[in-house]
Amino acid sequence: MKKIFGLMFLIAMMICATTFAEEIHPPIISVSGEGVVEAQPDRATITVGVVTREKNPSAVQAANARAASNVINAIVALGVERKNISTGNYNFAPNYRHTDNGKRILDGYEANNSVTVIVDDLNLVGKIIDAALSHGANQVNSLNFGLRNKTAYQDEALRLAVLDARRKAEVAAAALGKTIVSVRSVSINHSSVNAPRNYKMASAMLEDSAAGVETPIESGTLTCSANVHVEFEITR
């Protein structure tokens, strides 16, 4: 008799515990939401390279310095302030060649100076590239479009992501005959700005510059995106 009573008591406790757990943890719907906002870029970052090769180390350094100065002066002449022009990288190294018998012989020196320009007038981008290439630059290392103030676009993308998650949860809850009661948790998985890369490659830019043709640049559209994960509590 005591065993039966004990078993009934244990079952009753388990039922109470389960009911209590259900009251503490109501059912949830777990969804992900995505928000995307398109924006027109209002800033460009251009990096061009000045590469010089000479037999003498002092000669290559001097030649590179002259070419880099000419590039910078040509860019400034377009109306770009010097504070928006910087040296991104500078490399100086010996060049070697290998003979038929496998020996390595010093064959001169190379200097590589990269000049980075930040400009907010996108109409100047093509002109800056052409001016740089016609005054000593012989590489176009990168061209990136961006936003001066991307926070507002990222915030809007995040807001849309949350609304998207709410919409999905409401559809799912309605299909189950339930309604949303509250939000249990929100996780922001990522928020990013993706820039297009739709400009000409360096070789084409060099050809246009040599031919006296202005390099056409289309900035395209930036995409600001955000992704969230939300858990909604629903009615029983």
Write the layout of secondary structure elements.
Elements: H1 2-24, E1 28-39, E2 43-54, H2 57-76, E3 85-98, E4 104-119, H3 125-133, E5 139-146, H4 151-175, E6 180-194, H5 202-210, E7 222-234
Antiparallel strand pairs: 1-7, 2-4, 2-5, 3-4, 6-7
Structural class of the helices, strands and pairings?
alpha+beta
**Continuous helix count:** 5
CATH superfamily of the largest domain: Protein of unknown function (DUF541), domain 1
CATH topology term of the largest domain:
Translation Initiation Factor IF3
**What is the CA-based Rg, rounded?**
32 Å
Number of structurally distinct domains: 2
Intertermini distance: 38 Å
Strand order of the largest sheet: 3-4-2-5
Q: What is the architecture of the largest domain at the second tier of CATH?
A: 2-Layer Sandwich
Report the major sheet. 4 strands, antiparallel
* CATH C-level label of the largest domain: Alpha Beta
- The proportion of residues forming helix, as a percent range, comes to 25-40%
Strand content: 35-45%
